[in-house]
Design a protein that fits this description.
Blueprint: H1 16-19, E1 50-54, E2 60-65, H2 67-73, E3 83-89, E4 94-97, H3 100-107
Antiparallel strand pairs: 1-2, 1-3, 3-4
């Protein structure tokens, strides 16, 4: 049983049920949520397209190939710094050069595929 008299701090003890909000009526009169429109399904993403270029000769070793073929093009390269690898960005409609870490990730798959 809760006592509702003050306890020396000036605060009154009240049952917890009186402090919690009760669920209100169905809503505010005249306010309606708008109907939700169905979200269209996004188009499936196309596979990435890679371009591998030799740094010394600027010879294109592979262009417009998938990741497996790009790793295959790296098989004959001596070092990861001997090539630049780019990926086609369809939104910008240009080749984006991969960072060293991204190129290294492809390089690490050599001999495994």
């Amino acid at each position: 049983m809760l006592e509702t008299q003050t306890k020396g701090t000036g605060a009154n003890m009240v049952p917890l049920e009186r402090t919690q909000r009760k669920p209100g009526p169905d809503g505010v009169p005249g306010f309606f949520f708008p109907e939700l429109k169905p979200v269209p399904e996004p188009e499936p993403r196309q596979p990435r397209s890679f371009k591998v270029v030799d740094v010394m000769t600027r010879e294109v070793l592979a262009e417009g190939v998938d990741a497996r073929a790009a790793v295959g093009a790296l098989e004959g390269v001596h070092s990861v710094v001997d090539v630049t690898v780019s990926v086609w960005d369809p939104d910008a409609e240009r080749w984006r050069m991969l960072s060293f870490g991204e190129t290294q990730a492809l390089w690490d798959y050599r001999g495994q595929i």
